[in-house]
Design brief:
The chain is of the alpha/beta class. The chain is 27% helix and 30% strand. It has one domain: 3-Layer(aba) Sandwich (Rossmann fold). It has six helices and twelve strands. The strands form three sheets. It has a seven-stranded mixed β-sheet with strand order 2-1-3-4-12-11-10, with helices on both faces. A three-stranded mixed β-sheet has the order 5-6-9. Strand 1, helix 1 and strand 2 form a beta-alpha-beta unit. Helix 5 crosses helix 6. The radius of gyration is 15 Å and the shape is globular. The structure holds glutamine.
């Protein structure tokens, strides 16, 4: 199994480190040809407008859309914004997942926070049902899920922070910024 990490901007290095801890072969993706031979892809947190602009500049939009039709993608934070269909404003999006996302929904950088989440799917994938400690940095929320997308996790006030649609996963939080590998392990179960 070989998993790519989109390495245009943001915290791709932390995702690569997490995959290495799980003994998974990885590749940094910066050009369309870097997608060849990959079984899945992670799109990291960062700044979704910048990731989008660079993806347009490097002719990655169409190859990424096609990759997501057939292969598993995990989008974290800015990555979740980038794989969504609707964010209520105009910026380059892959439009792969039937989720409506609101950027910066928890406020500004100083409103970043951490909280424990209950994510039942992690128990199925890893056998552990310990609370999942999630880190939110100027995070988006998933306002709604459509089509056959389902909610994976919400914060206590009910706002959705993780969703899945088939082989596509989106999180408002940063699973790569803790020592807990369970979310990445869950993602790997979606990779064919
Ligand atoms: N606020 C960023 C955006 O809108 C996302 C922040 C992050 O990825 N940590 O793209």
């Amino acid at each position: 199994m070989k998993i790519g990490v989109l390495a245009l901007q943001g915290d791709f290095a932390e995702h690569i480190a997490m995959l290495k801890r799980l003994k998974v072969e990885t590749a940094a993706v910066r050009l369309p040809e870097h997608l060849n031979g990959l079984d899945g892809l992670i799109i990291p947190g960062g700044e979704s407008t910048t990731i989008g602009k660079l993806a347009v500049a490097y002719n990655l939009m169409e190859p990424l859309k096609q990759f997501g039709q057939r292969h598993a993608i995990l989008g974290t934070c800015a990555g979740a914004i980038f794989i969504s269909k609707d964010i209520g404003r105009d910026q380059p999006l892959l439009g792969l997942m039937d989720i409506k996302v609101q950027r910066n929904a928890f406020g500004r950088q100083i409103d970043s926070f951490e909280t424990d989440l209950d994510i039942p799917e992690l128990k199925q994938a890893t056998g552990s049902d310990a609370p999942y400690h999630a880190v939110f940095i100027r995070a988006p929320i998933i306002e709604s899920v459509g089509g056959d997308a389902k909610i994976l996790a919400s914060v206590p006030d009910g706002r959705i922070v993780a969703a899945q649609q088939g082989h596509l996963l989106a999180t408002s939080f940063h699973p790569e910024l803790t020592n807990d590998t369970r979310f990445h392990e869950y993602f790997l179960t979606l990779v064919d």
